[in-house]
Amino acid sequence: MPKAKKRPKPVVAHHAKGGTVPLEGVTKQNGRHKQHTGKATCSLELAGRQKPKQKQEQHAGKKTAAAKSSGDGPVLKRTLKTHRSEDGTAVLRCKAVAARQAASAVKLLVAGDAQGTQGRSIKSLTLAPHITSKKATHAIVCQTMKFYLILLEVIKQAGLVESISGLKAGSVPEATNIPVANSSGGPPTKVLCPYNMLVIVYELLLGQGLHSSGGGMGPAEKVVLKHKDRLKATLQQMIQKHGVKDAQGLLPKGRGDFMGVPHPRSVRVNPLRAGRTVEAVVQLLRSETLPKEWKGVSKATHDACRQVTQDPLLPDVLLLPPGTDMHNHPHVIEGSLVLQSRASCMPAHALQPKPGWTCVDCCAAPGNKTTHVAALMQGKGRIIAFDKDPSRLRRLQATAQLAGAVDVIDARCQDVLSLDPASPEFAQVQGVILDPSCSGSGTVFTRMDHLLPSIQRRQQQQLQQHNQEQQHQENAETSGEGDSSEEGLSDNDRDMTEDDGQGKDSDTHEQHHSMEGLEEGLGPADLERVRHLANFQTRALRHALCFPALERLVYSTCSVHKEENEEVVRAVLEQAQAAGFDLVDPFPSWPFRGLPLFPGSEKLVRTDAFRDGTDGFFVAVFARVKKDKKEGSKKKKARK
Ligand SMILES: C[S@@+](CC[C@H](N)C(=O)[O-])C[C@H]1O[C@@H](n2cnc3c(N)ncnc32)[C@H](O)[C@@H]1O
Questions:
Q1: Predicted pLDDT of residue 396
Q2: CB of residue 395 inside a 6 A radius of ligand 1
Q3: Which domain of life is it from (predicted)?
Q4: Per residue in 485-510, pLDDT tens?
Q5: Contacts (Cβ under 8 Å, ≥6 apart) of 86
Q6: Per-residue model confidence as pLDDT tens digits over 447-476
Q7: How many domains does the chain have?
C-alpha cells in the first residue's frame, strides 16, 4: 500500500566556480502561499490567499474540476458546482484563485513569447506543484490564450483602457499595471493588471460570466463589470462585421477546433523506487484501490489506470488514456513512476548503458534522461550531469532525489563546453547523453505554444497572404492569364515539399499537419534563432565526441527542424568517423527515420507529434566501431 510521503528536503548542488549552491525552493510545494484572514470575496486580486480549510475544499473539488483542457465554453461550470458552500463564498474564492493563477500564467507566457524565449509552457505553468486548482487554471489559460488576440481587440475597440500597448507582443510591459481611462474624460485615476483584465474579460464574454459579491472587488474586475455592456456590444459588432456565428468564428481557420494533440499519457517505471518489475507495476495499477487519504486521485484516474498498457518499443514505459491526470498519484509522488513523454524516454534506451558504466549527461536539467540512465544502470556506476543554469540544476537535484539516484548522479553547474574531455577524471566515460537546448518545435502542439500571440499573429498573416494569393489567382484565371502549378507554389510551400522527406506516400496528411506552423512558419527571426541553436548543438556534439573511452553517444532534440537534427549530425559525421565512430540504429523496428539528406541518415530516428502519440523528437546514436587511429598507434607505441 502506498503511504503518503513527504516531499524531498532541500538539497545542495556543486557549483563549478563557487563551491555549493543552496537548493532552497526545490520543495516549495507547501507554504508558498501565506494565509489570508480577510473576508471571502470574488475579487481576483484580493482572493489569492487561502485558508487551509478552503484549500481542502478545493482539493476535494479537483475530482470534477471543470475545465476540460480541450473544450470550449464555460470552463468553470463544474468547479463552481463542486465548490458550492452555503453562502457561496467558497465558490467565488475557488474561481478567483484559479483566475488569479491563470492571470500570472498568461503574463509569463506573453512575456516569454515577446522575448522570443518561449521558456515556460502552458502545461508547466498551470500544472506546477504550487498551483492549487490545476485543471481549472489550465482551462482558463488555454481559453484566454486561444482568444487572446480577439480579447485584446475587444478591449481596444471598446475603449476600455487608455493604453494597451503593454499587451502587445514584442513589448513586454515594464510595469504590469496600466492606466484606466476615466469615463469623464479626465486623466486616468486607476491602474490595473492587464493580465487579470484579460482573464476577467474572457470570463465575462466567453466563459462562465462574472458574479459580483458586493464589495472587495479588485480594480480589474470593477472596470470590466462597469463596462460589461460595452464589451459585449463590441464583441457582437465584431461577429456581425465578419459575418460569423460566434467568437469561435473569429479565430483563424482551423484554430477553432484545435486545442492540442491528444497523446496517450506516458509514465516511466523507475525501478530504483518501484521495487518491482514493470509487469508487476502494470498489474498493480490495474488492480489497485488507493486508500482514501489519497484524495488527489480522482475516479477518472483510477479507471484510467485499469487500462494501462506497456509501450511496445520501450519496455519501462507505460501508456494510459490521453488526459489521465497522474500528478497526484502516489506512485508519481513517491518516485516509482515518472511523468515523461514516450519520445523523451528514447535517448536513455538508445544509449544502452550497462551497470557500472561512467556516463556524462552534457545538458542534463531537469534530469529526466539522467535519472532514466541511472535506472537502466540499475543504480550502479556514475553519471556526471552538467547544466550551466543553477536554478535548473536545482531541479535536476530534486529529480535525482525523488528518483532515488542521488548516489549515482554527480550534478555540476558548468558550461559543458568548458570541460576538458581529456582530463583524467573523464578517462572512464563510456556513455554520453547530449540533449541540448533546442527550439522545442516538436513540442509546440503538446506544449500548446500554438496559442502564443506571436504564433497566432503569424498564422493570421499567413492566412491573409494565402487569401490574397487565392484572390489574385482567381482574378488571373477570370482574365485568362495562365499559371503553372509549380510557379504557383509559394516559397513556403516549396520549403515544405523539399523538407518533407519521410513517409511522404503514406503520411501526407500527418506530414502536412506536423509541418503546419513550424517549417512553414519559420520566418527570418525563427530561422536565425534555429541557426544560433544549431551552432551550439554542433559545437557541443563535436566536443562530446572527444571523451577518450567513449563507447556510445546519444544526440537528441525535441525539434522537428533539420537544421537542429540531420544537419548537426552531418556537420560532425566525418570527424566522428575519423575518430572511429559511426551512426548506429538504436531502434531497428521503429519505422520513421531521419530526413534522407546524406548516407547514414536512415539510422536516425524521428517521431512525429501527429503520428506517433508523442512529441516530435530526434535521436542519433554514435557508437565506437573501431579504435581512434591516433589512439591505437599511441597505445601500440606505449606497449612497445
Ligand atoms: C533540453 S534541456 C535538457 C533536458 C534534459 N536532458 C532532460 O531530459 O531532463 C537543455 C538543458 O541544457 C542546458 N544547457 C544549455 N547550454 C548549456 C551548456 N553550454 N552547458 C551545459 N548546459 C547547458 C540548459 O540549461 C537546459 O537545462
A1: 97
A2: no
A3: Eukaryota
A4: 222 222 222 222 222 222 222 222 22
A5: none
A6: 666 677 777 776 666 666 666 777 777 777
A7: 3
Q: Per-residue pLDDT for 308 more than 80?
A: yes
Q: What is the DSSP string of 380-418?
A: -SEEEEEES-HHHHHHHHHHHHHTT-TTTEEEEES-GGG
Q: Cα-atom radius of gyration of the chain, to the nearest Å?
A: 27
88, 184: one domain: yes
Q: Is 543 in the pocket of ligand 1 (CB under 6 A)?
A: no
Cβ distance 569 to 620 under 8 Å? yes
Nearest ligand 1 atom to alpha carbon 396: 9
- Chain-centroid distance of CA 353 in Å reads 27
pLDDT of residue 627: 65
**364 in a labelled binding site:** yes
Here the CATH number for the domain that contains residue 285 is: 3.30.70.1170
Does residue 310 surpass a pLDDT of 70?
yes
Cα separations in angstroms, 343 against 323, 335, 392? 17, 20, 21
CA 239 – CA 250 distance, rounded (Å): 7
- Contacts of residue 526, Cβ cutoff 8 Å, sequence gap at least 6: 439
Question: Is residue 568 exposed (0-12), middle (13-18) or buried (19+ Cβ within 10 Å)?
Answer: buried
Residue 468, in any domain of the structure: no
Active site residue 359: no
Average pLDDT (56-71) is: 33
pTM of the entire structure?
0.63
- Whether 349 and 334 share a structural domain: no
157 vs 163: CA distance, rounded Å: 11
pLDDT, position 179: 53
Domain around 278 = 265-339
Residue 458 lies in a domain: no
The rounded distance, in Å, linking the Cα atoms of 493 and 594 is 21
On whether both 185 and 290 belong to a single domain, the answer is no
Confirm whether 213 is domain-assigned: yes
Question: In angstroms, rounded to a whole number, what is the distance separating the alpha carbons of residues 414 and 396?
Answer: 13
For 11, the enclosing helix (H) or strand (E) is none
- Flag whether 323 is in a domain: yes
User: In Å, what is the CA distance from 465 to each residue of 250, 258, 461, 468?
Assistant: 17, 21, 6, 5
Q: What is the number of the ligand 1 atom nearest to the C-alpha of 440?
A: 1
